Structure formats: structure tokens, C-alpha cells
Amino acid sequence: MWRYAEWLPVINEANIVSLGEGWTPIHTLYKLAAQLGLKKILLKDEAVNPTGSFKARGLSVAISKAKELGITNCIIPTAGNAGGALSAYAAKANIKVTVVMPRHTPETLKEECISYSADLILIDGLIDACGKKAKQLSEKTGAFDMSTMKEPYRLEGKKTLGFEIAEQLNWRLPDIIIYPTGGGTGLIGMWKAFKEMQQLGWLTGKLPKMIIVQSENCNPMVQMFETGIFPDNFSAEASLAYGLAVPSPFAKDMIQQVIRESKGTAITVSEEDMTKGMEAFNAAEGMLLSPEGSATYMGLKKLIEKDYVHEDETVLLFNTGAWFKYR
To answer: What is the SS3 assignment for 150?
Structure first.
């Protein structure tokens, strides 16, 4: 992804901390398109990134900039994948890192952080509880808080998703992008990239409708889209797609802005749907989806049923993490 270094915030290339992230493949899903009666379905597979998820993009830029600014100690609250990614990049940059993670997170993700010599703190609850603990520890120790959207550089890394999609598709964007949304950095970053490319004259066609998908267990952004108000007394539960279990996204207003500006929508899928989706997709296309990736596939099926997606439209789905990390 550092092919786009001129549009990223690191000034001196000597400070770039990279593990080979980005330029992930876009697969054409011929069988599923035929089954669902659509012209073209694409899948951007972020599972092949270092540390097995799209989080590598944001944390590569964040740690690179932290190195450039002389930061030697940082902390992150995580649902899982961001903690592993930060631990890896911080290890390479010789930056001390503390990861605050829900206790119910799969053991694979806990072991990943520990293997990179991160300090791991486990908390009862979801990522919002982890965020509160991380804030307390940041104020106490002086560790820089890498929380989603509370620093500007993870967003810039996620922005490269938009550049890649445009370049890989010969500067003609899909009609619809369906994105599994927890904290929303990827969604906001892509939209930022599309706007920047318009200003550069690289994109002249219409921009995609940006559609978010969330779990029934935690869908505050869907409720906010439908009512215009963030839900009061919102009670969230853990999800099989742990990246979607974000009860109170810091960037909730920016997420809504992207959906509405793009003339998109928001949709919810059940935990059962995600399980069924993984089984059906994996058997049909020979690729293993994460639960978040399955949510985009099952979200597409629901949108077809609602007649929101039409047969002549090109749809891009996202697989944001590796199936193996959820075992």
C-alpha cells in the first residue's frame, strides 16, 4: 500500500514500518453472481494482509507516524485483530505496546499479541469497556492512545483501500460497496480516498453507494440510520463477528454522513445468517470468509430480496479478516 506514500502522512520514508500490507486481491465471484442473478459480484479479500486482517493497513501508518514523532509507548483497546496488528508493527518499530482486549476473545488472538511481546490486559465486557480502561492507563502511564478514530493516522492507512479498489478496477468504481462496520474507519477512509481522487481528476464517474452491515447483536449504526438518533440505553451483546461488536463508535456521525452522502443504506444480519453464509460461500467459491465477510454476503442477499440491488449492478463485498483467526 506504500505505493501511495505521497498521499500518506509519513514525511521521511526511513520511518515507514511495513510488513508488506496492502494490494490485496479482488476476486470475481462468478458462481455466486449466477446464483443470485447479478451481473458481477466482487470480493476484496483483506485476509491475506500481514497479521490476517485489514487492520494491518491502519496500524502500519499509525506506527510509522508514531516512530516519526518519537513515540515509544502506545496502548490500544481492541476486539481482536487491531491488537494483533499493532503488536506486530510495534515490535518491528521497537515501540512498547499494551493491548486491552475482551476476555471472551478467541485464544488465537490473545496468543498473537503475547507472541509479539505485547502486554495483554483482559477485560470483562466489549470493546467500549476496553476503551475506558485504555484511556485510564494512557492518562496514568503516558502511553499514546491508538483507539479507533481518536488519532488521525489509522484512517489514512485504511484510505488506501479506496485507492486500491479504483486502481485495480481501472478507475471505474463498483455501483455498490457493502462493508462490515464496527468502528467505521475503513468505510470513512474509502470515502475520503474517493473524494481525494475526484479532486485529482482520477475519478470522473459516479461514486458507489456505501452500505454498512452489522450484527443483530450489536447494530447501533443501523438503528441510528433508521431513526436519525443514536439509540439510548443500547444493550449490545458479543458477536461471532467480534469486529462488529462496537456498541458506541466514536465516529458514528461520520459513518452516517458517508452512508447518506453516498445514497447508501444500513442493514442487519443475524448471527445464524453469518454462520450459514460462511458455509454456503466457502463451498461455492473455495475461499474461507470470516464472520464479518459473511455478513457482507448475507447482507447482499437481503438487499436483493428488498429489490435494492439490481441485476445490472456491480457489487463489491469485503472479507476483512482470515477465517483461521476465529477458531
So the answer is: coil
Do 173 and 255 fall within a single domain? yes
Mean pLDDT of 107-128: 95
CB 58, CB 155: distance < 8 Å: yes
Domain extent for 220: 2-51+158-326
The β-bridge relationship of strands 96-102 and 119-123 is parallel
Both 309 and 289 in one domain: the answer is yes
8 Å CB contact between 176 and 313: yes
pLDDT over 90 (residue 232): no
pLDDT at 327 over 80: no
DSSP state of 53: B
Q: Which three cell numbers stand for residue 6?
A: 505521497
**309 and 187 in one domain?**
yes
Pick the last residue of a domain from 101, 118, 145. 145
Q: What's the average model confidence in pLDDT over 271-292? A: 96
Q: What are the Cα distances from residue 312, in Å, to 34, 174, 212?
A: 12, 11, 21
CB 89 within 8 A of CB 108: no
pLDDT digit string (tens) for 177-189? 999 999 999 999 9
Residue with cell 503516558: 142
d(CA 320, CA 243): 9
- Count Cα atoms within 13 angstroms, Cβ side, for 79: 24
Report d(CA 90, CA 129) in Å as an integer: 23
Q: Quick one: pLDDT at residue 234?
A: 80
What three-state secondary structure class fits 209? strand
Residues 56/82, Cβ–Cβ less than 8 Å: no
- Residue 200 phi, psi dihedral angles, 5° rounding: -80, -15
The DSSP-derived string for 203-267 is --SPPPEEEEEEETTB-HHHHHHHHSSPPTT------SSGGG--SS-TTHHHHHHHHHHTT--EE
Tell me, yes or no, whether 152 lies in a domain: no
The domain tally of the chain equals 2
Task: Tell me, yes or no, if the pTM score tops 0.85.
Answer: yes
